[in-house]
Each structure stands twice: as structure tokens, then as C-alpha cells.
């Protein structure tokens, strides 16, 4: 019995399924016999089907399988068979379905398989098969479905000769290593409905002969090395529904295989990152195909403009249009919104689009809308939402027949995530998962007040299932925060709102935080003033809060400590006062806390040492006093710490990953950092503790006073001469790499960047004599007897070249307020 030989070759059967196979019974003749996975023909009493798909079996496929000569179906997918596919399979002349996907087979595809003249469906995907396909084998015989994707097959692609490819309907060769050109002979497969050639190394042009495939519904040639223009002849494929010309390399898409039992197979790996680079614009007649539902062509090097004559169509079937990262110019046509009312995905990001957005776009019905990084301007309109939304395409439906259905493929392509949002449109039909909705207007020149946004009624039918991501950042929006920016906000699963880098002003109204579903609120680099409402503590889901670089004032509300899920709290560069609340110690998920460049006082709370998840702590440039809590040394994950320029005192605790003394500079009464040899730190004396000198003789004091006065006068005369000669015109003295040194008088020859670094002790804390908004000031003695003041500018603190120039001119007009300093020296990094 040949099946018992098969059983003997299986060494792992975790579910003991093959225990029903025994020598005392015959699966076809013994009454009440039941051999798992085996089916017989009742008339001939012969085995016609062996289906063990997905049963976690492990072993080898023995050559004796070729003795089951009446076998019509062999489905062993998603098991683990080591070794090669046995060539003896070529003996199964009655075989109609051969499914061996995901079985770990290696080696070449046996030549003998091409002799299976009755074979309709062949699926060898997701194995480690390599080498070329036998010449002329694709499309031969009765083959209707061929899936060889996700292997290591290589060489040229050849198609069966004339008259031998009429049965082929679905050809999937994705993610292999096929080279050279796509064969023009593909037109011989006149009934081809699905052609998936993505993820190979095809070169040259898309053959115009593909335009002769009148039955073609799905074409994917993405992630190859194709060039030249997109052939307008593709518009002859009037039934074309899915056209994928390019795809990005970080998608991790989920296009499922379909097996005989309807189960989902493995997932494609879009990580290899080849790119097509076409020439010219996109053929308008392709965009206007009457049945086209998905057009995917990001980063395809396309130019031109979007067609303005969509209104000439009797109807528009487009549901997903991705032309992001191209060179498309012009405006967004109104007719796109008027006619294409079923658009669910629209990505026109990173192009050269200008003008206004038409209000006819049905944005509330779009699961993914990305218009970022263009040059669009004007106010955002109130987008249309009449007639409800249609999401019929996102539902899966398999008939279990084992034949790849075109509509299944169309729906699977809706799982292609867009840009970086990992958008899963297919989840709309799955009420056990959430639906991601992303609308991105960022990096344009939109102006005016923020519009009120509502989500389509169909989204709200998901009731607590929609994750809404809304991006307005890096525009020119102005005005105040609307009290209710998102209507029906609390019906969402979550809301991410990014408003940074605009001109939004006014106060944060407490009612704005009535949307309890906010998980990400970013409004940095605006002109928001007033205090932070205590109601922010009601946002239990909040993970990211960024209000840095605004004009916020008042104290930090204790309620911030109630944000138990917060990972980042960024409030730097404001005018906040008062103390750091001890309640911050309750933020057990916090990873980043930035309170720098404010006017916070009092001490660092001991409770911060309880936030063991903290990785970044920035409290610099405040007026914090007292000691550094020893509890902070418990922060084992802390990798960035800045406590500089406060009024801290006492010892510096040991930090596991912090050894740079710059984290503590600018604190006059803080013990210095220990040297590398671990010698005890030298304490910087407090002025009140410095011992007064003993009384000297009057004569000695008089001589010292006269000498000092003469030295100062001589130094002053030298400085006066320098000023008269140079008129305080800034002069660049030396430049090392990108470090620049400039003096406001004729300087000695010893003035260069190396000498400045050496004289200031590498800008060490011991030579620090002051700090300001644009940098720090150090003392240096380049010439014996004359001290100079060195201003080290922080270019990043300037808002523009005028402010930088004004600071330099101001320094050129004044002397340092400390006695004995001859002139200014500026150091900065270009």
C-alpha cells in the first residue's frame, strides 16, 4: 500500500492524524474505514484525493507517491517536507490540483511536472526552489492557475508556444529572481486575468503586448527595475481593475494565498526594495479606465499633471489612488472629487501640487488621505459628506474552490499599508480589530483657522473601533484651538492629533480636553499661551504630549502625574514656573521628560527616581535648586540627562550610563564631576566661605595697588588702540574645519581655535563665567597679563540670520562687565 510508505516517511505527526491509516483496512473497500485526508472514487474504488494541508506534518515526500496513478488532488501545503520534490510526480497523469506551497522544499522544479497534461492548478509558492523554469512550460497543457511566488527561481521567463497558453488565467511569479525583459509572448495567454510579476529583476519596458490581454483584471509589475514610459496601450485592457506599477520597500503587505480549503496562507515579504523608474507622465487614459479600482504607483518618477476631465466619464470606479513621491504638478482637480465618490485611499504626497484643495473631495469617507509635502495653500474647506460612504471592497469573500478569484485579489490589495501608518483597510469588516483612519495635511502652506472635522457615519458605525490619525503640522494655520476640533470624538477608539509648527495662538481651553480618546497630542512650535489646564489629567489614554516651544506660563498641574500611559511629555521652551510636581513619580510608563528652558524653581522631586522607564530627562536652563536626589541613580535606563544651568548644589550621584560632565555644568554650587581616576571631587568654594586674606602691611598693600593700577591702565591703552584701528569691526582670525573664531579688535598672533580651546580648558566648567540665551561665556588668558572673554555661540538658538547678526553687532559695541577683560572673542560652529 503506497500510502503506508508515505506514512512511514513522516516522522512528526503532532495530532496523530495518520493513526487511522493501517494495514488491516483499505480506505476505499473496507466498510466504515476512515483514513484521514484520503478520498476515493466510489465507482472505481481508487484513491483520487490526498489532502493534508496545514497539519504540521514533518518528513519527506517519498518517490512511491507517484504510484497513486488515479490521484486527481494532492494538497500537502503548509507542512514541513525536507528535500526535493520527487520527479515521480510526473507519473500522476490524472492529477488536476497540485498544492505544495509552504512545505520547505528545495532544489529545482522537476522537469517531469510539465508532463502532467491534466493539471489545472499548480501552487509551489513559499518554498526554496531555485533555478530556471523549464522552457515553454508556463501556460502549457491545461494549466489555469500557476503560483510559483516566493521562491528563488531565476533566469528568463518563457511562455508556451502559440496556441498552448489559452487556458492560463492566473499567473503569479512574485518575489523571485527572474531577469531581463518581460516576454512580449505573454500576449499569447489571451485569457489571462491575473498577472503578478512583482519583486523580480525584470528590466526594460513594460511590453505593449500586455495591452492585448482583453481579459486582464490585475497587473502588478512593482519592485523590479523597469524603465521607459508606461505604455498607453494598457488602456486597451478595459476590464483592468488593479494596476500596481511601483511599491515601497517597507510595507510588509498581506496578500494571502488561497488554498483549496479556503485557509489563508503565508504573507508576502515586501522588503527587497527594488524600484521601477519610469519616464514621462502618467497616461491619462489609464486613470480614466472605467473599471479601474486600484492604481498604485508611488515613487515611480512620474511627472505631468492629474487629468481634469474625470467629469467626462459616465462613472469613476477608483477606490484607491496612490501617486505619492512623484513629480506631479498642477492642482487637484475638482472632478476627482465629483466623479470618484468611492475613493477610500488617496495618496498624492510629496509631489509639486499647488493651489487649493477642492471641497468636493469626500474626505470623511476616506480611510487614508495623504496630501503632505506639497505646496498647497489657502484655507481647508469643509469637505463633502453627502450620501454616506461605501466600503464594499474591504470585505473578504472566498468560495473555497481553490481557484484564485480576481475579486479576492482586489480586496487583498487593499491591505497594502500606505506610507508609515501600517493602515489595514481590510479590518473594516472585522469588528474584533480596529480600523485605522489617517488624514495627513502636513508640510504645505495651508492657512486660516483649523476646520472642524467629522468622521463619516460609516466610521462611527464601528463605535469605538476607529483609530483616527490627523496631521496638520508644518503649515500656516492660525487662530485659536477650536473647543471641539473633532465631532463625535469620544466615539473613536483613539485620536492622534499633530498640530506642531503652525501659528496657533490663544489658550488651551479646558473643554478641548473633553475628548478623552486622545493618545497623541502634539502642538509644539506655536504661539499658545496661558496655563496648562488641569483637565489634561483626564486623558487616561494619552501617550505623547508635546507643547514645547510655545508661550505657556503658570505652574505645572499636579494632574499631569495621572497620565499613567504617558511615554513622552515635552514642555520645554516655555515660561512655566513653580515646582516640578512630586506626582510625576507616578508616571510609570514615561520614557522622555523635557522641562528645559523654563523658569521652574524648588528642588527635583525625590519621586522621579520611581520612574524606572525613564530614558531621557531634560531639566536644564531653569532655576532649580537643592541637591540632585540620590534616587535618580535608580534610573537604570537613563541614557540622556541634562541638569545644566540651574542652582543645584551638593554631590552628583552615580549614574549607570551618564559620565559626561556637561550634563551638570553651570551649577555654581555643585561638586565637580569625579576624574577618571576616581579621586575625590574638588568642591567649588562658595564665595561666602572663601577665607579673607590676612592684614598686610600698609606699604606692601600700597605697592601692590599701584602696580595693579598701572597694569590695568597699560592694558586699557592697548585695547583702546585696537578699537581705534579696527573700529570694532568683526574679523575672522582662524577657522579649523567648521569651528570659527572671531575677535572684535586686532588680536595677538596666538589667537586661533586650538589656543582658545586650550586657554579655556576645552570650554570647561572651571572657566565658565556666565551663560545666556545664545551661548556661554568663558575666561581665557592668551597673552600674559591680559584676560579675554570668549563667547561660544549656539547657532541653533538663533531664529534667523538677522538675530545672529544683531547679537554679533551688540557684542562689538560693548565690553564685558567683568573687570580686567580686554575684548570679546566669538567661537561658533558653522
From TrEMBL:
* SMART domains to which the protein is assigned, alphabetical: LRR_TYP (SM00369)
InterPro entries cross-referenced by the UniProt entry: Kinase-like_dom_sf, Leu-rich_rpt, Leu-rich_rpt_typical-subtyp, LRR_dom_sf, LRR_N_plant-typ, LRR_R13L4/SHOC2-like, Plant_LRR-RLKs, Protein_kinase_ATP_BS
Instruction: Please tell me where this protein is predominantly located.
Output: membrane
Every copy of the Disease resistance R13L4/SHOC-2-like LRR domain together lies at: 496-648
Q: What GO biological process term is on the record, naming one? A: response to other organism
GO MF annotation, one: ATP binding
Q: Which residues form the Leucine-rich repeat-containing N-terminal plant-type domain?
A: 3-41
**Is Nucleotide-binding set as a keyword in this record?**
yes
Positions with a binding annotation for ATP: 792
Membrane-spanning residues: 702-725
Q: Does the keyword Iron-sulfur apply?
A: no
Which GO cellular component terms are attached? membrane
Q: What keywords is this UniProt entry annotated with?
A: ATP-binding, Glycoprotein, Leucine-rich repeat, Membrane, Nucleotide-binding, Repeat, Signal, Transmembrane, Transmembrane helix
Subcellular location as annotated: Membrane
Q: Per UniProt, what is the membrane topology?
A: Single-pass type I membrane protein
Similarity comment text for this entry: Belongs to the RLP family.
What this protein is called in its record is LRR receptor-like serine/threonine-protein kinase RPK2
Q: Which organism is it from?
A: Forsythia ovata
